[in-house]
Every structure is written in structure tokens, then in C-alpha cells.
Amino acid sequence: MIRLDAVVALLGRFPALAGVDLDIADGEIVLIQGPNGAGKSTLLRLCAGLLRLESGSATVLGSDLSTSRAAVRRRVGLLGHDTALYDELSVVENLEFWAAASRVDRSSVLPALARLGVAPRLHDVAVSKLSAGQRRRVALAGVVVRRPELWLLDEPHAGLDQAGRDLVDDLVVEAARAGATVLMASHELDRTVDLATRTVVIAGGMVVADRLGSVHSEAGEGCAD
Amino acid sequence: MLTDARLVAAKDLRIEMRSKVTVSQVVPFAGLVLVMFGFALDANRPTLDLATSGLFWVTVLFVAVMAVQRSTAIETTDGARRALLLAGVEPSAVFMGKAAAVAVQLLAVELVLIGGIIVLYDASIEEPLLLVATCVTATAGIAAAGTLLGALVAGVRARETVLPILLLPVLAPVLLGATRAFDDALGAVAVNGWSWLAMLVGFTVINVAFGVTAYGVLLEET
Amino acid sequence: MTTTTASDITGTRRRGTGSRTTFWLGSVGLVGVVVLILLGFFAAPADDDQVDAVRMIFIHVPVAMLTYVAFSLTAVGSVLWLWKRSIWWDTVALSAAEVGVMFCGLTLFTGSIWGRPTWGTYWDWGDVRLVTTMILFLIMVGYLAVRSLDGDSATLATRAAVIGIIGAVNIPIVNRSVTWWSSRRTLHQKSSLTDGNLEDLTLFTMMFGLVVFSILMLWMMIHRFRISWLERQVSEGNLSEALIARRAEAMVAVETGRVGGAIQPELGRQPDKGGFGEVEDSK
Hints:
The structure holds 3 protein chains of 3 kinds. Chain B is mainly α. Chain B is 85% helix and 0% strand. Chain B has one domain. The model of chain B has no long low-confidence stretch (mean pLDDT 91). Chain C has 8 helices and no strands. The model of chain C is unreliable at 1-12 and 260-283 (pLDDT under 50).
């Protein structure tokens, strides 16, 4: 559960979030839309307990963010623009390190990689040798390993091929069925809209529209990147 | 906390081993500095005898600055600092782990440097125990202060220049203490190296304790 | 309306960072310096050994003592920033550090000028207090370097606070190590205050100097404090302005229909994808 009330958060001196009100129940799949620089990534980082509140109040997974951000962090999975992978280490070494650091059984690493379609021949390859898409899949596998209660996905489809995008969609639906909450920032409306149980539009660091269900759109082609 | 520290240290050392920077760049650099000092002091044997300990530790400090820069870069290049916070690793464990990894690398370089001063400067080891104890204690102190200050400049654009400005003055007592203790251990100057070693222990204890306390603030804030 | 604002601005301009208190502090300090010069150069007698060079202690000793006071304040302010996130104390730490670095530089400068006729050398490596002060000076210059980095004020305050405390916790070790290191060859006076050799008037002049420089330090610190306080206020004033500007972005986005698809879903209008800037993502 997430409850944000008039949340202001700064990046440096810039008010990236300028008064966000938002209530999200468990099990929702929320699509966050908005133009570039609207504050989507900042909102996800705030929900992960990584940002200090400048003003307002925020409760995530039952913890008050102004007092106990550390309690939230362990329970979320964040896929940001960075993949937090060490270039010199192999795929499996990376995920085993993060599993151990997060106190998760490392036996879940191989199934997670399989789930994300990372071929076994890549397991012992240094991460620096992976393509951007492969790297992203490995990072997503890292999120899966943590079994988070709250999934915070920043452009999860970016840099992935068609099969990879489908995989992301499946993962999101699976997670929500298992009771987790998913917040997903995306540009790719035609893809994500069908998943979302709710769409929140932000602009200028504020929620400007919030509605149940997804934005209707004709499935658009040609948004491959 | 010790498990996490070991985890972080093992990770850093494995990365160092893979990248081979220590072996292929840092060690040659250290050797080069010894040779350069030899030229600068005109290969004058009595001068070199007196200056050996100091040159050794000045070289170690240069190497320490490089090692700390690299150790910090490991966490900053792909947002791993943030991931460490999300994983819930105690910042003090991250500090201990990273400092331990830096210390191991420095000790490896020091081993090569000791070989270097024996061969190039004709140093002889009179008190091996004092020598080893000095290396271990001083290196732990250098790694602790360095790791803390490395986190302090993480993400700063001018970090390559800021780090030495901050680190070297703080390490001044190590340079004094370790050099005197080495003077004794190498039999170059008659001083009581063991009391200098006690001072080094004090420095190391203070800086490890402060690093354990303050590292979390820096990890959070920057 | 416009006139009020204008007069407000000129009013502010006239006031600057001065106030009745700083006016009197500054005036007393100025008079004090004049009196100190008269006392130091004319009233106080020359020393038996050091002759006229002894007069340097009227500046050197007070400034050196105040350096340590200032850096202690920086350490205390740093702790209170990290502990209580007190902006007031952080500002004290910064003002004390700046004034302290100046006093510290002055200490080293006057010390070496005095050292030349007395010890026959500007710099004495064997002198504990000189070398310790030099290391402290270098650490605190680092503190100011961190303060001048770019970044938001809270982050800089935290980074700097760690340096402020590192300087303080390491000073005993630095002092100890330099003491041992130089024990073979120290030249420094035993503390001028305690060896009882000073003439009454000399001692009085030095104490007077301490008072004068304390007043000057306080005066400078208050001004420096007010400057950074105003800087903070400007940036916080900017925050409310920035918030207004930021929120205006939201309004513009709604009005121009960039987010119209979601605002008016009943029209079944597809959001203008171009407006979302397709690939903002990095690799």
C-alpha cells in the first residue's frame, strides 16, 4: 500500500516532486505516464525509500518514509535507469552477490535467469560483454530474485526486443496476482495500457490525472526501439 | 555485519583481480616512483639509506589515493551505491568490506615495494616483526581514512583532485609514524619503532571507529 | 505596491549584514586594534633575548588560540548538523571554518616571521605546534574546498561536516606524532603564558590582544554567518518560486493537451505520443 500526501521531494534544489497526492492499494498495477522530466523516475525512487521528503507525508508498505526509509528498502524491487551490475563480474556472480547482500537464498538466481530468458551460455560471461538488452534482463532477474512486495519499474520495456517486452508483461501480471503492487513508468502506452489496472498521469511533479483502468488506444505499431 | 563485510570485500577483490589494474598499472607505477626517487636523490647511497623509509611510505600514499579512487568508482559507475542501500546492507559493513579490500591491495603493493627497496636501495630488514606490524597497522589506517573520504567525494565532478587534497593531510601522522617505525625496522636510524607503532594503532583505531560511524551518513546523502 | 517593494529593497541594501550589534563590535574592535598597536609597539618593553621580535606575540598568540577556538566550533557545528540537522549550527560551522582558516594562515605567517630573527629560520620542522597547525590548516583548506563544490546545500553540509570532525578527531594524534617526531630538535618556546618570564605589561598587552582579536573574530563570524544565512534564504525563496514554476508546468501540460488523452478519456483520444518524447531512456 502506498499513500502519498502533498509530497515534495528535491533533486538538488530542483523540486522534482511538487506536491504529489496518491493512494495505491495492494495488488494494483499502476502505469505512470508523463512527459520527459515530469518526475516519474523521482516518484519511483521516493517510493523505494531512497529520497528524503522535503515536505508532505508518505507511507509505503506500512512504513512512514520520513522516519523509517530503511524498512521499506528491503521490501521493494527497483529497476532504474542504472542496472547496478558490476562490469567485471559474471552474470551469475552479480546476481549471487546481490542475493547474498539482500539475504535471499542464492538458489533462486538460476530460476530467475531462466525466467528472464538469459541463456545458460551467458551465465559466466562478464556483464560488460552483454548487450544493453541482455543487461536489462539480468537486472530484471535481480528484481525477481528479491521477491519484492512492491515493484518499481522505470521504463522496463526500454531496450528490450519483442520477446523481452512480453516477458516483462508476464512478470508484472504474475507479481500482481501474487499480491505485489507494481508501479511502472513507461512511454510505451500501446503496450502497457492493457496491463494496467490504473493510470496515473504526472506532469510538473504533480498528479494531473488518475483513473482506473487503462487508457484506451488502438494497439499502435512502430514503437520498437 | 562481518558476513556482509566479507561479502563486500570479496566482491571488490574479485573485481580488482578481473580488471588486473593493480598488477598491470599500480605495481609498475609504484616501481617507477622508486626509480624516479633514485634519480632525484642522485643514487647517493647514504642519502638513500636515510630516505628509504620515507620514500617507501610516500609511494604507498600515492598508491592509496589511486586505490581509493578505484574502490569508489566500483560503486558509482552503475548505481550500485543505491542498490546496496536497497539490499539493506549495513553501511558500516560496506565500509569495513571496502576498506579491507583496499588494505589487501595496498599490502600486495607494499610487498612488491619492500622487494624494490631491498634491490634498488640496498635496504636490509633488521626487525621483520616490526616491519610487518607497521605495514599491517598503517595500511589499515590508510584504508579506513581513504574509504571514508572516497565516499565523501563520490559523485563529485572534481573528485580526482579533491580526494588527495582531503586525504593526504589526514594521513600525515601515518607518514610520520610508519616512516619512523620503518627506520627502526630497517636499522637505518636509531629510534624506538615500537612506540611509533603504538601511535599508528591509535590512528587506525580512531579512523576505523569514525568511518564505521560516519560512512552511513555519506552513503545516504550523496 | 511597486514603491513599497523598491523601498524594501533599498532598505535591505542599506542594512547589508550589519546591525547595531555588529556596528559596535566592529567599532570596538577597530579602536582595540589601534590601542593594541600603541601598547604593542610603544608601551610594552622589548624582551631581553628576543628584543623587538617579542612584539609579534601580541598577534601570534591570540590568533593561534582563536584558531583552535574557531575549529572547535566547526567540529561542534558539524556534529550538530549531522545529529540534529541544525541549519543554524551548520552555518556556524561554515563561518567558523572560514574565519578559522584565515586566523590559521595568520598564525603560520606571523609564526614564521617571528621565527626568522628568533630561531634564524622561517620554518622549523622540529616545532610541534607549527607543524600540527600546518596540518590542521591543510585539512581545513580541504573543508573549504568541499564547501565550494557544487551540489545542494544539505549534501555539501554533510560532506563538509565529516571533514570538520575528521580534523578534530585526528588533531590529538597529529599533535602526539609531531611531538615525538620533533622531540630531538624542538625550538619552540615553552608556552609563553606559563613560563612566568613575561613582563607585566607584556602579559597585559597579550591578554588585551586576545580580547581584541576575540571581538574581531566574533564580528567577522557574525557577518559571515548572516551572509550564508541570507544565501540559504535566497535558495529557499527560490524553492517556493521553483515550486510555483514546477506546478505551472503541470498546468501547461494539461492545457496544451499533452496529457489530454488521460485527462479526457471519454473522448477516447489517444495521447499524443510525440509529446512524451519517445526514447528518453538511457542504454
